[in-house]
Amino acid sequence: MASKADLIVGIQWGDEGKGKIVDLLAQKYDFVIRYQGGHNAGHTIVIDGKKYALHLIPSGVLNPSAVNIIGNGVVIYPDALIDEALQFGDLTNRLFISQNAHLILDYHIALDQAKEKSLGDKKIGTTGRGIGPAYADKISRAGVRLGDLADQKSAVETILSRYDQHGLTPPAKAKIASDVARWSEKLLPFAADTTKMLWDALDANKKALLEGAQGTLLDVDHGTYPFVTSSNTIASGACSGAGLSPKEIGKVIGIVKAYCTRVGNGPFAAEQSNDIGDKLRENGEEFGTSTGRARRCGWFDAPLAKFACRINGVDELALMKLDVFDGFDEIKICVDYDDGKPVYKSFAGWDKIAKARSFDDLPKTARNYVAALEELTGVKIALISTGADRNDTIYR
Ligand code: IMP
Predict the structure, then answer these.
(1) How many helices (H) and strands (E) does the chain have?
(2) How far does the centroid of ligand 1 lie from the alpha carbon of residue 66, in Å?
(3) CB 38 near ligand 1, within 6 Å
(4) Residue numbers in the chain where pLDDT is lower than 70
(5) Do 152 and 158 touch, CB atoms closer than 8 A?
(6) pLDDT tens-digit profile of 209-247?
(7) Ligand 1 and 214: CB distance under 6 A
(8) What percentage of the chain reaches a pLDDT higher than 70?
(9) CA 300 to ligand 1 center in whole angstroms
């Protein structure tokens, strides 16, 4: 019987700690697949104290026997991928890239940054990586796909014409030609029909894990528009972004942080622009993996988490960074809204749970907090993370 692909999805505004979970789970999967986003993502994985920051390559790369797929729904900045791949040596037969994935070109980055500048105070606070303009070109049928690099001459002409269409001064043709030649040489060996590859894998009963980037509340359709990213970050994005039918999605694991963070602008009702937010940022090292920006921090927002669990069909939750509350006397959860204002419920804090490895080791107050989150979201918390290392994990 064919198997189904399990899925990891962020429940908040990204940065929930998906990298750690995918890395833990990747040990058990034959295939790990990215299906949307680009190098705006930053997944941090810590193994034996060594930190790896992944932006485009699926987190399965740290499991030597996993095959990693960058699906058609991802947008790729070629040189970012080439540089990132260098840290892992030879990836032949361990990395495949959809020939239909669209490329982020330098002018997409220029357009992204220029638009943000022109918006002034109203800017989105993008990562400035060209994500929006690259997806815009894809949707308006003006994109360049990885497979297009096979005809280098034509790819150069297409890229030149795009500069023209956007009213931008192109770089010298020789520069574009040398870029295209480098990208072809370095990336085309990994190009494949990854949809077919995935179907074959599932038909052969292999285990596949879909790795979502960003989070539900940044989804272009269901997030806090216009303060969103430009892809469908929710579970359904995995179907279009990897070439799977909804019937081929198996278990959906939602990743949720014990509190909320957000990078960039946009609504965040439970934000704490005060000592509490500062303490969360400091304890949780809440600075962007991709951009180094300080993240906005606040209490857990239960109504939003419940919404996210529903829209993704979450089967179980992984609760990340519970130890960041170590030393808090009081912890609050936004349990409802009254006229747009958060209504909080207060919980007693705890001294220290960092590195706890069994649920019974947790103080009663921490167990109460976990139980409240389960009750408010209606979803079981199957895993609790109490530190950055692979081993600082409680399985229930
Ligand atoms: P863009 O994806 O660079 O266009 O940025 C759009 C919004 O999504 C901004 O608020 C970014 O801060 C946010 N964003 C994009 N990628 C990530 C991520 O990986 N983690 C958290 N926020 C992100």
Answers:
(1) 11, 19
(2) 27
(3) no
(4) none
(5) no
(6) 999 999 999 999 999 999 999 999 999 999 999 999 999
(7) yes
(8) 100
(9) 19
What pTM did the predictor assign?
A: 0.95
Nearest-angstrom CA–CA distance, 242 and 203:
15
Nearest-CA residue for ligand 1 atom 20 is 14
Look at residue 49 in the predicted model and tell me its pLDDT.
79
- Nearest atom in ligand 1 to 128's CA: 3
Domain limits, CATH 1.10.300.10, in the chain: 102-188
Match domain 102-188 to its CATH number in 3.40.50.300, 3.40.50.2000, 1.10.300.10, 3.30.565.10: 1.10.300.10
Q: Calculate how far, in angstroms, residue 160's C-alpha sits from the geometric centre of ligand 1.
A: 28
Q: Return the pLDDT at 109.
A: 97
Q: Please tell me the distance between residue 56's alpha carbon and the centre of ligand 1 in angstroms.
A: 14
CB of 33 sitting under 6 A from ligand 1: no
List strand residue ranges (DSSP E) for 94-153, in order.
95-98, 102-103
Question: 18-29 pLDDT, tens per residue?
Answer: 888 888 888 899
Give residue 303's pLDDT. 98
The residues with which 133 forms a beta bridge, in sequence order, are none
H helices present in 152-271, as ranges: 152-165, 173-187, 194-203, 235-242
What interhelical angle do 235-242 and 194-203 show, nearest 10?
A: 110
Q: What does DSSP assign to residue 231?
A: S
**Active-site residue numbers?**
15, 43
Which ligand 1 atom sits closest to the C-alpha of 41? Answer: 19
- Residue among 18, 54, 75, 126 to mutate when testing ligand 1 (max atoms within 8 A of CB): 126
Q: Fold for domain 5-95+192-395?
A: Adenylosuccinate Synthetase; Chain A, domain 1 (3.40.440)
